[in-house]
Amino acid sequence: MPSILIADSGSSKTDWCLIEKGKKTRHFNTGGLNPFIRTEKDCFELLEKDLKIKPAKENIERIVFYGSGVKDKKKAAFIEKILKKHFGVKDVEAHSDMLGAARATCSHEKGLACILGTGSNSAYYNGKKIMSQNPSLGYIIGDEGSGTYLGKKVLQYFFYNTFDEDLKAAFRNKYGDDLSEILQKVYQEPIANSYLASFTEFLIEQRGHFMVENIIEDAFLDFYQRHILKYRESWKYPIHFVGSVAYEFRDVIHSLHDQYGLETGVILKSPKDGLLRFHTDEL
């Protein structure tokens, strides 16, 4: 029986869902397939090693891929070529993670869709397609409110000696204080954005401390001021979120929406369940 394979890929990981015609689903996980980070060779090796699907046995007739880094037709073609070759499937679509977030949260309704995970992004979706979108500048010069943005703040507060003694001790107990090792991982090793985002865990563990709350609130304010509040549709339609950072700090989102008079939509830790519903309806 023919199947549809759905993929939601970030820089760190990819969630795969195989949907059969009977609507039975199976889930798989691999590393991320971001075309800005992975080479073609990397992608093939990752799929061969980590994805526990035998293409010849699954009768896959269609693949829909949503991923960070799929920002234009060239990057989409890069991913489509790899998936077509690996799976031997002709019907392959590669879309941005932003469209994936919009379909997962808005389905066929109008709304703002936002990503707050390792990176950040936002767009206005009219129920069929993305109509307007702020540019995503990546973790070095953008990604306000994201895991990488928060992680950089944690490192700055510690190494610039801004944390109080309790937070400095908690940081040392968890990570040590070897600056050269951290700089090595940030500037000379791959997937630095995911490494930086890993320091968000420190903020989660230290919730309630005024410095930690200030870091989180300031990062979200930066995201709202540079993105959400620039859409005139923000005051007309629900604002939805996907991503681990949005889900973990959803209390901050609710507080900001109360402050600005905005409507809160759904807040999903991952878009995979929403995408599953969206594409299952097509069968």
Count of alpha/pi helices = 14
What general form does the structure show?
globular
* Averaged pLDDT: 90
Radius of gyration: 20 Å
| H-E order | EEEHHEHEHEEEHHHHHHHEHHEH
Low-confidence stretches: none
N/C terminus separation: 12 Å
Helix content: 40-55%
Structural class: alpha/beta
Q: Quote the beta fraction.
A: 15-25%
| CATH class annotation of the domain at 3-101 and 272-280 | Alpha Beta
Largest sheet: 5 strands, mixed
Give me the side-by-side strand order of the main sheet.
Answer: 3-2-1-4-5
**Number of beta-strand segments:** 10
Keywords: Kinase, Transferase
Protein name: N-acetylglucosamine kinase-like BadF-type ATPase
GO molecular function: N-acetylglucosamine kinase activity
Protein architecture, described:
The protein is α/β, with parallel strands linked by helices and 283 residues long. Among the domains are: 3-101 and 272-280, ATPase, nucleotide binding domain (Nucleotidyltransferase, domain 5, 2-Layer Sandwich), CATH 3.30.420; 140-217, Orthogonal Bundle (Transcription Termination Factor Rho, Rna-binding Domain, Chain A, Domain 1). Helix content is 46%, strand content 21%. It contains 14 helices and 10 strands. The chain has helices spanning 40-50, 55-58, 73-87, 97-106, 138-141, 147-159, 165-175, 179-187, 192-197, 200-205, 210-226, 244-248, 250-260, 272-280; strands spanning 3-9, 13-20, 25-31, 60-67, 92-96, 111-116, 120-125, 130-133, 239-242, 264-268. The strands form 2 sheets. The chain has a 5-stranded mixed beta sheet, sandwiched between helices. Strand 7 and strand 8 (130-133) form a beta hairpin. Helix 4 (97-106) packs across helix 14. The model has no long low-confidence stretch (mean pLDDT 90).
